[in-house]
Design goal:
single chain; mainly beta; five-stranded mixed β-sheet
Length: 228
């Protein structure tokens, strides 16, 4: 979950998205302001089209049809599109990632296995500089952390690329290629190379890139969760 401004938009259906029925917004990254809606109106409509928007990088949006059967507090997961009553207690996990004994920025995904055995997403977030506190919601089960490396995007002829973007050969052989100078990929897939010596950048179309080893996801757990 990212911090910052988010919106949850409420429509009757896709055919009438030009008529916004209600909007909820938040600046704290989690809870919107409380609004009172007539339960009779909610029940009469049946299913409502709910759309969530998160403009914090990496930007996300999600839409789903939801039914409201009673009054209460409802949540909407922009990542998965799940909605319903309050899902779990808020908590925090201290994330720490090392790759070849050095701190590494990775996307960490946290999954929970409750007593019923049905796995659920508890949270996710980055580890800038190799560490960071990750927000989760838990229901009393064991939580496991999965560190995910950047697998890059598959090679596309003439694709415009930016510094820091990773490119993956169509025939993956253990290396991805991180762009060091922006430009355009070649019209035909090149002969890819492995990192050697000081690993200097090489031409990749009009761009330049260096070879990076891709590290497969590694799981750890159960990990301690500080319930807030």
């Amino acid at each position: 979950m990212t911090s910052g401004y988010k919106r949850v938009l409420m429509y009757r259906d896709w055919a009438s998205v030009h008529q916004l029925c209600q909007v909820f917004d938040t600046s704290d990254g989690e809870f919107t302001a409380v609004r009172n809606l007539a339960l009779a109106t909610l029940l009469d409509q049946g299913e409502w089209l709910i759309a969530g928007v998160d403009d914090m990088p990496p930007r996300r949006t999600r839409a789903a049809y939801l039914s409201f059967s009673e009054s209460g507090v409802y949540t909407f997961n922009i990542t998965s599109g799940e909605g319903g009553g309050q899902q779990g207690d808020p908590g925090r996990v201290a994330g720490l990632v090392r790759v070849e004994r050095l701190p590494a920025n990775r996307e960490v995904v946290l999954v929970e296995r409750p007593a019923d055995g049905e796995w659920r997403l508890a949270g996710y977030g980055p580890t800038p500089g190799g560490s960071g506190d990750l927000d989760v919601r838990v229901v009393g089960g064991d939580v496991y952390a999965i560190g995910v490396d950047d697998y890059g995007v598959a090679f596309v002829p003439d694709l415009a690329v930016q510094v820091g973007q990773r490119i993956r050969p169509t025939q993956y052989a253990g290396w991805v290629y991180e762009v060091t100078e922006a430009g355009q990929l070649p019209a035909a897939e090149p002969v890819w190379w492995a990192a050697q010596g000081e690993n200097p950048s090489q031409p990749l179309g009009s761009a330049r890139a260096i070879a990076r080893r891709y590290f497969q996801p590694i799981a750890h757990g159960p990990v301690p969760v500080e319930v807030i």
